[in-house]
## 1
Amino acid sequence: MNHGPAQPELRGLVAEFENEEAIVEATQKTVDAGYHHIETYTPYPLDELLDIQHLHKNKVALVILIGGLTGCAVGFFMQWFASVIHYPINVGGRPLNSWPAFIPVMFECTVLFASFAALIGMMVMNKLPRPNHPLFDIERFRYATQDRFFLCIEAEDPYFEKDATRQFLEELNPHEVNEVEA
Amino acid sequence: MSQQEQAVDIEKVDKYTGDGFVAPEYNNTTVTQKISNIVLRSDTPWGWFLAVAVLLPIVGMLGISITWLVLIGTGIWGLNVPVGWGFAIINFVWWIGIGHAGTLISAILHLMRQDWRNSINRFAEAMTIFAVMCAGMFPLLHVGRPWLAYWLLPLPNTMSLWPQWRSPLVWDVFAVSTYFTVSLIFWYMGMIPDLGTLRDRAKHPIVARIYGIFAMGWRGASSHWARYEKAYLILAGLSTPLVLSVHSIVSLDFAVSLIPGWHTTVFPPYFVAGAIYAGFAMVLTLTIPVRHWFGLQGLITTRHLENMGKVTLATGFIVVYGYAMEAFISWYSASPYEGFMMWNRMTGQYAPVYWALIFCNAVSIQILWWKRARRSPLVLFIVSLIVGVGMWLERFVIVVTSLANDYMPSSWDYYAGTIWDWSLYIGTIGFFLFMMCLFIRFLPMIPMSEMKMIIPKHRNKKDA
């Protein structure tokens, strides 16, 4: 691509579609045409898009599992340390490490840590919070959280060529095609 | 560029009584408009100001009640020597129970793929959070010296003392604080996409900025949705056993003691069912007027009300089973103290309270067998109020009758709440409703993104 010096760098091209079927069809065609660096933006999750973009595998569950196990261990250690090491009290010869009585607090700690892992893990892996984004500069992108569906082909895609890609997107019958500036 | 705003036929939607879960006028565009406009409109309805004007003095009364309690001590309450757990514990259990329906609706029904819950879950979760706030106040105030409440937490201290880990009262501290935190996370996470919608629809830049901060830059990318959905699903899976554990632990506060009428194994499931029952009643009590005032009949439809009526009836029967088992076991145990406890409940100094509770919780709900009653907002509203009262009476009977007349007749006494007990209790109701008012004014009370998932696809076609 031949970038003139005054031109802002292009991050990608984004096309707007009016309904679910249109975006699913367009995304399928885009993937079939060989584009890989694509992203879709929808007001609610669309399973078909997750299929097409192969997004079903992620590490959220693993992060939550690690969070939960950590919480469980912390919960046990806290009670065990207090009851056995730091301040042991002999009550009628009963065992100091009375672990069955520790289960409720261990359970609560497990859920607490796992929930934080869920929120924070999801955020971090999604690279959020990110209050601003080049896409927000596009006037109509605000409809992505309302009732419109957007497909973005990113400039880093090996098949990306400004004019050819734009023409390709135009042929998908979108409502509008816009440039995303970096 | 075509103007996307299309008008929903308000008249039609407000009168929607059809069998669907969403009125046919709603598609992706109109549902977004309808819900976000309640928040973003610039003309706050005068009724909202009226509600706030009525509720603020009650919140003030709560403040005065707490201040007076802190200054004078728990002597201003009606507590006496056998009855050390009065209104504070009754109200604690009542409020926390109400909170549980929020988690049930948002988590358990989500796991069971009951999509109809999508229009009431946000509302119910908000209810959970405010109810748990109210619940949490009572044990803190009941300890007598609330400024030392941090002693409940395992913090290093000069006396090297730790909480008693083998006590349900300490489990309760962990259960309730975890429950509050997790409910807040669940509620907030569910709201992130909708906060993005509000950011994008807000006309005023400062309003957009504020919602934008809380939306954290959400832009609805499919890769984000994939992680979001997974995290949300697992959170629902975590909240489900959590809600059961919380009320089970609350019931263990009673069941682990040796007081007649408390020392029973039926308590955990009986308390959980009672909690869900009271909570569903509270959801009905709140949604019925709100859907009427804000014209949400097309989103919280008659069919939603009918379903909630069915759940109320079903959980009501579990509670009735609990009452029957309490009576049966008190006879079957052949313990004279258990037998007396039950007989005393039915015929003793608190007999009117017991029979009022049976009327409210066992008799009044029988009307819900009729489909016409379940589909009538007025009938449901009245029944839900009766159930709310009944569940409060149930906790009163459990807490007070067992304590007031325990093993030793010489120590028996009569307990009743004082004016300060009542002002604190009514104050928390005012606080709860006040918080609900703020919530419906400033946050989307129905999840827009989730509603769009259950709207039939063909409604979003141009020619449809």
## 2
Amino acid sequence: MTIKSVLVANRGEIAVRIIRAAKALGIRTVQVYSAADADMLAVRLADEAVNIGSPAPKKSYLNIEAVIEAAKAAGVDAVHPGYGFLAENGDFADAVVAAGMIFIGPSGDAIRLLGDKVAARSVAVGAGVPTVPGSDGRVDTLAAARAVIEKTGFPMMIKAAAGGGGRGIRIVQTLDDLEQQFPQASAEAAAAFGDGGLYLEKVITRARHVEVQILGDGENVIHCFERECSLQRRRQKVWEEAPAFLLPADIREKLCASAVAVARAVKYRGAGTVEYLYDEDAGAFYFIEVNTRIQVEHPVTEMITGIDLVQEMFRIAGGAALSIRQEDVRVSGHAIECRINAEDPARGFMPAPGQIETLEIPEGEGVRFDTMLYEGYTVPPFYDSLLGKLIVRADTRNACLDRLKTALEGLKVTGLATTITLHLALVDDDNVRRGDYHTRFLEAWLETHFSLTVARKVEVA
Amino acid sequence: MTKLEIRSPLPGTFYRASSPETPAFKADGNTVASGDVIGLIEVMKTFQEIASDVSGANIRFLVDNEEPVMAGQVIAEVEQ
């Protein structure tokens, strides 16, 4: 069945992105919102909007009952969950289907299987994909954890089986550390995720974060090449690129094929991302996890492949077979995305909600700004700090960096602090320009380079 | 006796305790010293401690746990 109407069960820039894709396909849009979000751009753009509760996420965007009621009352065919909130909640996917609507994403069972990090790791092993050295599945006792570490060595990560998005991770360097942290990690995981299960993964000291975009229709699976997302602060991506420019061609081929193998193993339906650590020195990649949703950084893939991933999600969920063949997916040029957050880089990235006074958005060839901002809009304090994503494409990476710099200089937001200044410093950095960075680069760089830049500016002022 | 106000420096969601399992930083009627943490404000998924900038007795909270607050809103009053 072709989808004719959709409820957008999210907010912010991704709600705007979903509405634009739906409108391009002639689909009627219904936007849910909390009491704090009545003025948001997605509400203004949607055909209809429904207030589903108070500002606290658990009383609105995380309230399955309220979202399902709104969808039923609006009489929509389908629900798009975006990212975050209920996007990777298998019970929500089931509830949408039980209410007679289409969930735009994989089945509840697939979400639960791949959302359990230990089960997902087993799927990868079964599909012949290398995983980070560590425990085979869950580790129940300290003795079992010690036995794993005797084989693999330190440093080791203790991870929550039900964790994700960088949450529920501890790094241990010694046996004493392990003995202290293991029981704490289990208690913390039980409290945070309702599941105290833990597993172990070796820390790859100089790793890149590389991930492969996949699209599946339940039968066929294709990949749309990879993204490089190593510039992270507190395990949150800050800057993403596509393709991963330093990846040798033979490794790229194996990496992308392995992602397709993982997705095929579970008859994947929808858009998804298979995440890996890439050890540049060893030329080896290791599976980390599968994200069963559209990702924040999906636009860099769109910019180099010309594929509209969100529109493809609508088509697949509507029952269409994949219309894109693998041989038709080609990389053209290079793309970079900068996440523009309402945070003050000069004050330790303190969150900075507030009202947008003026907004200037750069335009031009290869420049795209996905955002929920408009002049006069007040960014509420109740949700994440992402204001928008500046995405730039050019024929080569160097040309892309030049174009990005111009675009960043042309992006002007007044009324609150943003991370535009951080990106202006990054685009000028020699290491970033050479592509010489890894997942722990940015935090160290902020201490040594960026704080100096900020201090100098203060002195001059 | 005068009443002194403790205001939230930031907009967000106010919490009386560091987690649902732990007791409140201050109970109504407690004495407060300048610098004491009286609650947390969740702003854009990060937590900031709210420290009292005054000393006083018999603190009375004007905002409930998990309630939204505006920047500058009075969270509690103490007597001096």
